[in-house]
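User: Show me a protein chain along with its predicted structure.
Assistant: Here is one chain, sequence first, then structure tokens.
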Amino acid sequence: MAEPATPVENPTVAHGLTEDRWLGGRLTLLQPRRGHRVGTDAALLVAAAGTPKGRIVDVGAGVGAVGLALAQRNPLASLDLVEIEPELARLAERNAERNGLQARARVLRLDALKSRERREAGLADGSADCVVTNPPFFEPRAVRASPDEGKARAHVLPRGETGATIADWIEASLAMLRPSGRFVMIHRPEALPLILAALENRVGALALAPVHPRAGASAHRLLISGVKGSKAPLSLAPALILHEANGRLTAESDAIHRGERLVDWGG
């Protein structure tokens, strides 16, 4: 789902791209006019991650929105934006420059699921203090991919030789994370059994925050936070309601979309 960003009139922006102010105007983003665009899921992930310290790795970074927002929030943080799609990686580089973050941000165009590619790019296992990710929600055998290549890459995991799984994505993300580092992800509630199985014995202090489109509706997104190597128990955070009955954003959701509020993870 996507709440629209505020467009910026800029005649120098190439055909096929838009320049948008996002997260309450905190970031200016170049992004494709068509296909997958930055929206609510990205804003939720930013709010869920809080203010990470040290090195942040954004896995499947797209145009860089989430990672850049987190690096902007903490002037001492450094950032790796990992993106397989060449055009999106180029836009992530331009967005880092546009927002004055190029000195603290690297864009790594590679397949995050391949450890050799990560090592060759200088992304060592165990080097991240925080890994954030908004992975494709569907496995290649489970759905018919969109004919729009950009949407297909955003929504469906890469096929590989046998078809990638969410477990593969989580395993790769955790490999980059140092012990006691924090893992933060957004996904579909239906994938919870697969997610818990992939995190078992690897991540503790798990907190789950359900996201509902409106009061009375089933959760359609799930925010997951945990600490690598922790033995602390799982907890359920307060639910987040995005919209009022009239379709307007709730006060909490509106503040998250403007970058003014973090997710309440509870006790």
